[in-house]
Amino acid sequence: MSADLSELYQQVILDHNKRPRNRGRLPAANRVAHGDNPSCGDQCSVYLRMDGDRIGDISFDGSGCAISQASASLMTTLLKGRSSAEAAELYKNFHEIVTTGKEPEEISDIAAFAGVHAFPARIKCATLGWHAAIEALKGGPNVTTESHTD
């Protein structure tokens, strides 16, 4: 990776950390999941508003290192409007990038996290928000679903 590209990727992470996108509780959420990384103290809650099988809106909230917060911010921009299957495929690609360092063929913001593979302890930081989003999509036992009365 060239020095210029590496610097660009660092700027992407710093930008998402300093100016996170879609941060805060989503009042219209109909699925919520929380992720916790006890080894470093990172926490992330992901709020989804599903429109059928599509993510109509998404936000996150929590605290942690720059990697976890930037990753969660970028994740929300990538998943909004996607189907559950598309979200799972994006997570699979992201996980491969952070665990192997393999950059995607095309230059994209997601490639900014390729350097994480060199720091194994940071992989959990980078994937924390993604794990919470996938759990929210599954509607599994760690998910709080708002109930509505008819």
Descriptive key words:
disordered C terminus; 19% strand; 4 helices; alpha+beta; 4 strands; Sufe protein. Chain: A
Fold and architecture overview:
With 150 residues, this protein is an alpha+beta fold. The protein has one domain: Alpha-Beta Complex (Sufe protein. Chain: A), CATH 3.90.1010.10. It has four helices and four strands, in the order αβββαααβ. Strands 3-2-1-4 form a four-stranded antiparallel β-sheet, with helices on one face. A hairpin with a 2-residue loop joins strand 2 and strand 3. The protein is globular and about 40 Å long. The termini are far apart. The model is unreliable at 144-150 (pLDDT under 50).
What is this structure's SSE topology?
Elements: H1 3-18, E1 31-37, E2 42-51, E3 54-63, H2 66-79, H3 84-100, H4 120-138, E4 143-144
Antiparallel strand pairs: 1-2, 1-4, 2-3
CATH class: Alpha Beta
Gross morphology is globular
Q: Alpha-carbon distance between the termini?
A: 56 Å
Number of strands: 4
How would you sum up this structure in a few lines?
The protein has 150 residues and is of the alpha+beta class. The protein has one domain (3-140): Sufe protein. Chain: A, CATH 3.90.1010.10.
